[in-house]
Design a protein that fits this description.
- The protein is an alpha+beta fold and 726 residues long.
- It folds into 3 domains: 335 residues, Thrombin, subunit H; 68 residues; 170 residues, no CATH class.
- Helices cover 44% and strands 14% of the residues.
- The strands form 3 sheets. Strands 1, 2, 3, 4, 5, 6, 7, 8, 9, 10 and 11 form an 11-stranded antiparallel beta sheet that branches.
- The chain is globular.
- It starts with 42 loop residues before the first helix and ends with a strand.
Length: 726
């Protein structure tokens, strides 16, 4: 959609290629994921860009900081508290799995949406949690305990683990809260997070897919976006406002800290912040490790998931029951699939491997000058040697994981192995039956969202890829079965899915209801388990141990490489890689137009969404009520001059895990909810290009409009604190 500038083949001097660093001025000011407890050091820079509140308001240890309004939502998203009654705002796709668990063909919340009319209608979401970060503290001295980098890695790791466990227990005893310690800067620093996790979380609002997932894979990781990617939940607590398991007697969590909502909008250039839990970045790795991502891992994952998604889409289109079974799983698989495509393209457009190589050349020159540290001279050669020694194994294992173990039936082999192990416990017949049936009963959730016919087609497609790419690596069992079925994978699939107990929950339950101690042979002969066992055995014997040793060596080398980079560039301010801990990023509202003005610069509107309406498409079908609201311009107090703002761009450094993060203005007020990055900008997990890296957010006015006018849930608006001050 945009004109793309040509990439210069001329590299700058490596010392100037500070692609991994944040500077206090210039275009790099937008890069960085900062630990909230260190924001005081960033205050002048943030104020120069527009911050209007003290950074102590964003984070402090007295309980009055806005860190107490940000939560880790589930296992890998962010949410924000937006009312005194524990109302949580996050992304639609972050709530997808929980909503699938409470949906059915009779209660199809994906097709129809859900907005509670009062708190009594809010729906419990079993297993869903939210976690607050009450305080963070640098505990490096307690963990490293002045141990040198010359200790053997195993000894060093054991000492560090012992110190971590002891320090966590110390903090738990003092605070009466949970404490988790994680490493930063590749093990050169350690921080503790004092946390509080709430377990009674209930669904409040969830737009239908025609709003919350509009555009599907086509628009995912792209700009412009027209997706109202939000959902709402509520935290419930016991009578003392403390975490508790679900109980009807629980009350909405009372929040002392929550985000005020600013509905006055923004303009390009306005200061913004993103507060949340970015998942994983690798900004400081060597070119040798980046090549593994660019040449091996990403391309293989893309190829395998393309096949899986094609099959799933076909079966989901033909059956609403299959749609409900696979919609959450498909969203998760597709998210990585599209992201990796953008990542590869962005790394290519920016010539990132060459830029890293230029930096490494400068590092070598610097290392030669460090006469008192000979180890520095061998650091990059060691990184190169170790990385290149396992390239072939990484390729082999990526096909194992994405192709063979990407088949649901074969994935279940790991659980099936637990059944086999029960026969090795010498249990009585009654005890054996009881143990087996408890395990089989625990599989009910898997089969609720599983379709054998769909998975069989996935098997055929992925095993064709595996046989085409891995003939030299595959186990003898695979070669034999291929020949036994006259080199026809479809016939092999019919055999496995027709005879495997794993393919049928009814067969498993029948086996468990009349099990005999000698029946282990039936399990051992199961064709799906035999394929899983063959692949797993090869992985254990030839791959996993080697890669484990490799990863251990690379952790040590990368720790030293990180430390050395910081020594080499000691005038720069480094930020740690993302590790699913609380961070704050900041940058301006800014369009994506590296070559000049573009049709879509920094904002989209509802009108553009309606223009894309296609009644024949599941992903571009606009709900009838939304079209009527647009036709009559019934936007309530949320519209602007006859339009309804929908999504916007800013230049904040985000990653996976920032889904659902609050996007704040200069006064710390909520103006949007982060949900995506622009396509080539997904490479920001490895390299931040200020001309291309953008985070995409739902405009809070669109969220309020959908809640108010589409969801008829104005009672939720009433409990929010909404300001309109520019």
């Amino acid at each position: 959609m945009f004109r793309r500038r040509k990439i210069s083949k001329v590299l700058t001097n490596g010392l100037l290629v500070l692609y991994m660093l944040s500077s206090s001025s210039g275009s790099f000011a937008k890069e960085g994921m900062w630990i909230p407890a260190t924001l005081k050091a960033r205050e002048k820079d943030m104020q120069a860009m527009g911050l209007q509140i003290p950074v102590d308001r964003l984070y402090n240890e007295t309980g009055t900081g806005l860190n107490n309004a940000v939560v880790l939502f589930g296992r890998g998203c962010t949410g924000e508290v937006i009312s005194p009654q524990g109302l949580i705002l996050t992304n639609h796709h972050c709530g997808y799995g929980s909503v699938q668990g409470i949906s059915s063909t009779d209660k199809d919340y994906f097709a129809n949406g859900f907005f509670a009319k009062n708190q009594n209608e809010e729906i419990p979401c079993p297993g869903l949690t939210v976690t607050f970060i009450r305080r963070m503290e640098n505990v490096t001295d307690k963990i490293l305990n002045k141990k040198t980098d010359t200790l053997p890695e195993n000894l060093r790791d054991s000492i560090i683990l012992k110190n971590i466990l002891a320090t966590e227990q110390e903090f738990k005893k003092i605070t009466h809260l949970d404490a988790t310690i994680k490493s930063y800067f590749e093990g050169n620093q350690y921080w503790v997070a004092i946390t509080e996790t709430y377990k009674d979380i209930r669904l409040v609002g969830f737009p239908p897919n025609g709003i919350g997932a509009f555009g599907g894979d086509v628009e995912n990781w792209m700009w412009p976006r027209h997706t109202g990617d939000f959902s709402m939940f509520r935290i419930y607590a016991d009578k003392d406002n403390k975490p508790a398991a679900f109980a009807t007697s629980n009350q909405p969590y009372h929040a002392d800290q929550y985000f005020k909502i600013n509905s006055s909008g923004y303009k390009e250039g306005d200061f913004t912040m993103v507060y949340g839990f970015p998942g994983t970045t690798q900004e400081y790795i060597s070119s040798y490790e980046l090549k593994q991502v660019y040449n091996i891992s990403d391309p293989i994952s893309i190829a395998a998931r393309t096949r899986k998604l094609d099959v799933w889409s076909k079966h989901m289109t033909g059956s609403r029951e299959n749609f409900l079974k696979y919609t959450s799983k498909r969203a998760g698989v597709a998210n990585g699939w599209k992201k990796w495509q953008g990542e590869v393209k962005g790394l290519q457009l920016n010539n990132v491997i060459a830029k890293k190589q230029a930096f490494e050349q400068s590092f070598r020159k610097w290392a030669e000058q460090q006469k008192d540290n000979e180890q520095l001279k061998t650091l990059l050669p060691q990184l190169k040697k170790e990385a290149e020694s396992v390239d072939n194994l990484i390729e082999q294992d990526q096909y194992n994981k994405e192709a063979v173990l990407g088949i649901e039936l074969i994935q279940q082999g790991a659980s099936f192995e637990n059944l086999i192990n029960c026969f090795r416990l010498n249990l009585s017949k009654e005890a054996l039956a009881d143990t087996l049936n408890k395990q089989i009963k625990g599989w009910a959730g898997f089969y609720k969202n599983y379709d054998s016919a769909t998975d069989k087609d996935v098997f055929i497609s992925l095993m064709v890829l595996y046989f085409n790419k891995c003939a030299a690596w595959m186990p003898e069992y695979c070669k034999t079965e291929y020949k036994n079925h006259i080199q026809d994978i479809a016939k092999w699939a019919n055999d496995i899915y027709g005879n495997s107990m794993i393919a049928s929950y009814d067969k498993l339950k029948a086996f468990g209801s009349n099990v005999q101690p000698a029946d282990s042979s039936k399990l051992l002969a199961d064709p799906a388990w035999r394929l899983y066992d063959a692949i797993n055995t090869v992985r254990k014997q030839k791959i996993i141990k080697v890669l484990k040793d490799y990863n251990s060596k690379m952790r040590s080398l990368n720790r030293l490489y990180m430390k050395s980079q910081m020594q080499m560039q000691n005038k720069q301010t480094f930020y740690p890689n993302a590790n699913l801990t609380l961070r704050l990023a900041y940058g301006p509202v800014k369009g994506l137009d590296p070559d000049g003005p573009a049709k879509y610069s920094f904002q989209t509107t509802l009108g553009e969404t309606v223009a894309l309406d296609d009644s024949t498409s599941d992903i571009f079908r606009v709900p009838k009520k939304l079209k009527e609201l647009y036709r009559t311009k019934d936007y309530g107090r949320w519209g602007v001059n006859g339009t309804m703002p929908l999504a916007f761009l800013a230049a904040n450094h985000t990653s996976g895990g920032n889904s659902g993060s609050p996007v704040l203005n200069a006064r710390g007020e909520l103006i949007g909810t982060n949900f995506d990055r622009a396509y080539e900008g997904t490479m920001s997990d490895y390299y931040f290009d200020p001309s291309r890296c953008r985070n995409i957010s739902v405009d809070i006015r669109y969220t309020l409009f959908i809640v108010d006018k589409f969801g008829d849930a104005g009672w939720l608006i009433d409990e929010m604190d909404i300001v309109q001050k520019k």
